[in-house]
Design goal:
Layout (H helix, E strand, L loop, with lengths): L2 H23 L4 H5 L14 H13 L4 H11 L25 H12 L4 H12 L14 H4 L8 E3 L12 E7 L18 E9 L14 E7 L10 E8 L2 E6 L3 E5 L2 H5 L7 E7 L10
Antiparallel strand pairs: 1-8, 2-3, 3-8, 4-5, 4-8, 5-6, 6-7
Helix pairs in contact: 1-3, 4-5, 5-6
Length: 290
């Protein structure tokens, strides 16, 4: 058995393990079960907290490594509907795992992959989505470019420059987040005068070929740049997870879905100006944070 075949066998085993765990943890249609028909389990977005705790417990029992946990949880979100502005009332619930947009999908998967219980996931979300763990609108990481470049955020790091064979193919772009071209603010008065200037290296879509990539992790984040948005104080317009070269993301048109072979087949045909890669990190909760 060559290494590529062995790798695909491992992926197949992981997928089977995922569906076994979901079948144990999630409710099934009694009528279908009685008829001997196997159906797909419901997505995490339809899970009770009890069922979600069971899934996380099964992952912990299997001692799955962190990339495998990310892959399993991302796959269990497939089929979840896209929801605009999922954080409707973060004062009562800052971890609405059943409702996702593109960013909340990435954050929920990260929080759950780091957790054995939903209570831990809530603590991780508090730390990865809010500065200093203070849950309120003003402390939230509203901009992906801010979240993946802030040294204080241990869950994400921009890694684009490490993922290309020749760094000269990259371009750099600077944006003052929340500051519009006319001197106003993207969030109006809601964030006061907050702004932050960030510079990111990105991989341009024009002229891209997969051979440009080296050392791309099996699992990482991917975010997309539109230069026109910089005038509005926004640098990144969409994000998702890149898992074994497939894009897992929450689309307004398709909900949470998979785009197979994304970088090779789809990215060159899109309207994005470029993309950046960022790591998804395993971060243990400190004892006083549990």
């Amino acid at each position: 058995m060559n290494k590529k075949t062995e790798y695909h066998c491992m992926l197949f085993y992981a997928a089977c393990l995922l569906y076994l765990m979901l079948g144990i943890a999630l409710p099934w249609s009694a009528a279908s079960e009685a008829a001997g028909i196997i159906i797909a389990p419901i997505p995490i977005s339809s899970c009770s907290e009890t069922a979600l705790n069971q899934l996380l417990a099964k992952l912990a029992e299997q001692r799955a490594d962190f990339p495998t946990r990310i892959s399993a949880i991302a796959a269990a979100y497939i089929g979840a509907p896209y929801v605009h502005h999922p954080l409707r009332d973060e004062t009562s619930d800052w971890f609405p795992y059943r409702t996702v947009d593109c960013t909340m999908f990435v954050l929920c998967v990260t929080a759950l992959a780091n957790s054995r219980l939903i209570a831990e996931a809530r603590q991780h979300m508090r730390l990865l989505h809010y500065r200093d763990g203070i849950v309120d609108f003003n402390h939230r990481y509203h901009f992906t470019a801010d979240r993946i470049t802030d040294p204080a955020n241990r869950y994400f790091n921009a890694i684009t420059e490490r993922c290309v064979c020749d760094p000269s193919v990259l371009q750099r772009i600077t944006c003052t987040l929340n500051r519009t071209k006319d001197g106003g603010y993207f969030f109006g008065k809601r964030l006061g005068s907050w702004s932050k200037t960030v510079t990111l290296a990105y991989l341009p879509r024009h002229g891209f070929h997969p051979s440009m990539l080296c050392r791309l992790p099996r699992v990482c984040g991917i975010a997309f740049i539109k230069k026109a948005s910089v005038q509005q104080g926004v640098l990144i317009s969409h994000e998702g997870l890149l898992i074994d070269n497939d894009l897992y993301h929450a689309s307004p048109e398709k909900g949470v879905c998979i785009e197979n072979g994304y970088l090779e087949r789809i990215y060159p045909t899109t309207a994005w100006d470029g993309c950046v890669f960022f790591s998804i990190n395993e971060v243990p909760l400190l004892r006083h944070e549990q």
